[in-house]
Write a structure and sequence with these properties.
Layout: E1 2-11, E2 17-27, E3 32-36, H1 43-51, E4 58-63, E5 66-67, H2 73-83, E6 84-88, H3 99-109, H4 114-127, H5 143-155, E7 161-165, H6 173-189, E8 193-197, H7 201-204, E9 209-214, E10 217-220
Parallel strand pairs: 3-8, 3-9, 6-7, 7-8
Antiparallel strand pairs: 1-2, 1-4, 4-5, 9-10
Helix pairs in contact: 3-4, 3-5, 4-5, 5-6
Length: about 220
């Protein structure tokens, strides 16, 4: 489903350095993995390359047989909108929209019909335990609730690939546990593939397998 082969990335300049080299990873539908490693080793860079937000110097990224590294920017944007979901440490919830409107954004971007979009948003808010907060504004929600909104938005369009970058870094332990359980459950329910970047061993234990990113590549923990 997701195939990463020989991925490499360097940055030029006065402090030129190689961030990633020889990265290989294969994920099957429904497989959820954690990527750990030292700060600055390139975990977020890896997610950016997989998502097509940055271009690799070498290697390939294929999602469901589509080679992403050869697509132009417009085509990559379409792939991200239709087949990827993103969850970050910062919630990126729009404060002037209601919870339901925030969750509906990915469906609007792909042109989903209003009745179908409304039904999907309602179902997704129920799945994340926020059915009664649809009309609320983000300022009325706790940190854990905001992260659940972000997860609902990331999954509402049934993405094939879910990318989560330190999604519990700003949460208290109870909220973090709820968010991690939710993220795993929804990845599995949608038969998606998921990559969780985290420093937390507790978070990593919620995935199917744990990989460590080092200067020489990815290896099992």
């Amino acid at each position: 489903m997701l195939s990463i082969r020989g991925l490499a990335k360097s940055y030029a300049g006065p402090r030129s350095r190689t961030v990633l080299s020889g990265i290989d990873l294969e994920l099957a539908p429904g497989e959820y993995v954690a990527v750990m490693g030292e700060s600055g080793i390139g975990k977020s860079t890896l997610l950016n390359l997989v998502a097509g937000l940055d271009r690799p110097d070498a290697g390939s990224v294929a999602l469901d047989g589509t080679e992403l590294t050869t697509l132009n920017d417009d085509a990559l944007t379409r792939v991200r909108r239709t087949r990827m979901g993103f969850v970050f440490q910062a919630f990126h919830v729009l404060p002037y929209l209601t919870v339901a409107q925030n969750v509906a954004l990915p469906l609007l971007l792909v042109g989903a019909a209003a009745p179908a979009a409304d039904a999907r948003v309602t179902a997704m808010l129920a799945a994340v335990g926020l059915a009664d907060r649809a009309a609320s504004r983000p300022r009325e929600l706790s940190g854990g609730e905001l992260q659940r909104v972000a997860i609902a938005r990331a999954l509402v369009h049934a993405p094939r690939l879910v990318l989560a970058d330190e999604p519990t870094g700003n949460l208290d332990p109870d909220s973090a546990t709820q968010v991690l359980e939710l993220l795993r459950r929804e990845v599995k329910r949608g038969d998606a593939a998921g990559i969780l970047v985290t420093h937390s061993h507790a978070a990593a234990r919620t995935t199917d397998r744990v990989l460590v990113l080092t200067a020489s590549g990815l290896r099992p923990a």
